[in-house]
Amino acid sequence: MNDTLLAAGFALGTASMSSAFSLIARRGQSHGTAMTGVVIGLIVNVPWLVALTILTWEPAFWSKEAWFWFFLSGITGPSLGRVFMFQAIHRLGVSRAVPLLAANPLFSAAFAYIFLGERPGTYVWGGILLVVFGCVGITYQRKSDAPWDRRAIWLPLMAVLGFSTSNIFRKIGIEVVPSALLGITLTSFFGFLALIAFVWFLPRPHRPSLKWGKAWYFYGPCGIINTLAFLSHFAALKYGDISVVSPLSSTAPLFALFYTWIFLRDMERITLPILLGTVCVVAGGAIIAFNAV
Q1: Structure confidence at residue 6 (pLDDT)
Q2: For residue 270, with 0-12 CB atoms within 10 Å meaning exposed, 13-18 middle and 19 or more buried, which class applies?
Q3: Per-residue exposure over 216-234, b if at least 16 CB sit within 10 Å of its own CB, e if not
Q4: Which residues contact 85 (CB under 8 A, 6 or more apart)?
Q5: Sign of CA dihedral 147, 150, 151, 153
Q6: Residues 129, 126: Cα–Cα separation, whole Å
């Protein structure tokens, strides 16, 4: 199996796990805020990631250059990007927030083109644009649809900006030290430190609540699933270009739509525009996958 196919497989695994994570986060919103969810998720994951990294430590892991890039990746992705992502899921629901987060490929591919010198082919760009066009359908609202706050659209877009920027830093770091485990550990650790520092500047009502309760039962598994998805994404970046990995990872709407239809019928309704928009997103990912073979 060539590197491109390995990258595609890991990227699709990322998409599936990301959707499961979104489903649990949606169910847990009544038990804790977005900030609570992000902090609990990092608390659950950082200790065992650090321990595993120490156990598998190699001299090559100590690279100031790689640590610098993973530091930048941490403060843009696991901290800022993830907070906005939780907020988007809580405010817009899984069926709208997850597809809107699929705009990530356009930002990632554009940044990779400008800063990393990647040159995706015509089919890759076509697939990326199809993914983005699908997002237009997701945001369309008919008069008969259940009301939702259009003003909250900026939340997933800010999450996309954070994750896209993080992707660039992560890609550079993993090229310096090709270890997915080290990358996710440092990114999560620095993201956690950034959040802790940021929390002190928030008004007390908006600070995370870490009291033991149902929030831990929902957001704890969320954190583990998200970390596994993150690790899969790192592995995908190790074997393939961002312009291929990012669109395939963003086929999460296919899984999200399926999970929503089964598990969130009491909370969300799948409309025709959402369905068509999701089909466009998935079709764009399929074009990328076909081009990768």
Answers
A1: 85
A2: middle
A3: bebbbbbbbbbbbbbbbbb
A4: 97, 101, 156, 159, 163
A5: positive
A6: 5
How much is the pLDDT for 154? Answer: 78
Residue 220 to residue 48: CA distance in whole angstroms? 13
Contact 215, 31 (CB under 8 A): yes
Which class for 43: exposed (0-12), middle (13-18), buried (19 or more C-beta within 10 A)? middle
116 within 8 A of 246, measured Cβ to Cβ: no
CA distance 168 to 197: 24
Q: Which of 96, 16, 83, 36 is nearest to 218 (CA)?
A: 36
Residue 33's contacts (CB-CB under 8 Å, 6 or more residues apart) are 206, 208, 209
Mean pLDDT of the chain, nearest integer: 78
Mean pLDDT calculated for residue range 202-207:
70
Residue 187's nearest CA partner among 42, 65, 86 is 42
Q: Looking at residue 116, what DSSP letter applies?
A: I
Sign of CA dihedral 218, 170, 157, 190: positive
d(CA 65, CA 55): 22
SS3 208: coil
Q: What does the domain layout of the chain look like in residue ranges? A: 3-292
Q: Phi first, then psi: what are they for 141, rounded to 5°?
A: -130, 120
pTM: predicted TM-score of the whole model, two decimal places: 0.69
Q: CB–CB of 186/67 below 8 Å?
A: yes
Contacts for 23 with CB less than 8 Å, ≥ 6 apart: 94, 256, 259, 260, 263, 264
Q: How far apart are CA 289 and CA 292, in angstroms?
A: 5
